[in-house]
Amino acid sequence: MPAKWVQALLALQAIDLRIRELEQRMTLLPEEMGKLKARRDAMVASTARAADEARRIEREIKNTESEIARLGEENRKLQQQSAMVKKNTEYQAMLSSIALNEKKIGDLEGRVITLLDDFEAAKAEYRRVKVENDAVIKDARSEFEELLAFAGEVKQEIARLQAERPAALRGIDSATLARYTTLLKSKNGGSPLVKVENGICGHCHLRVTQQAANGILKGAVTACDNCQHLIYDEGVEGR
Ligand SMILES: [Zn+2]
Description:
- This protein is mostly helical.
- It has helices at 4-84, 88-169, 174-185, 210-218; strands at residues 193-197, 200-201, 222-223, 230-232.
- Strands 2-1-4-3 form a 4-stranded mixed sheet.
- Zinc ion (ZN) binds at residues 201, 203-204, 206, 224, 226-227, 229.
- Zinc ion (ZN) binds next to loops.
């Protein structure tokens, strides 16, 4: 068994490293949730575009049909008037207007047939896109809910670990705790207390000094002279 201070600090460190890991996991959640929201928004927009395209064609059909109706009405009037016209030139002009309108109507009717095909295709495309996008939206929503549930679990676990901390602090002297805490909060992300294996520091991987090795042998609170991390040796029995 390693020295008492090592055992106590290892127990505290297990709690603190888990808390740190969970907190780091939590910091990633907003971005993950943001991505899911963006994916959903993109799908909603894509479905809306497909619907807009179908509606646009539908409007064009209606406009074209009302233009056909207007030209037809114009021709009916021209025909009525032509029956009462006496001058041949005027009569001929009316006939050519009627013929021109009929040509336009024919063209527009052809256009309507094309548009009806386009409309059917656009509706089919809308249905296809909607099914596809709805599936993605559903997945994104359930992933989002999973993340929310996960966040709740992580928060609970952090709270539980925090509650365990006071008991774990017992038996650790304040100077050692202060060193440990500084190392824990440092940006290098490593473990404050590390194993020495074959004389090599588990944090910086350099050989520990003779002085440090002696400290470990005496069971004293010892730090690596190179990286300042607290060190212990499993092979050394505590006193
Ligand atoms: Zn070191």
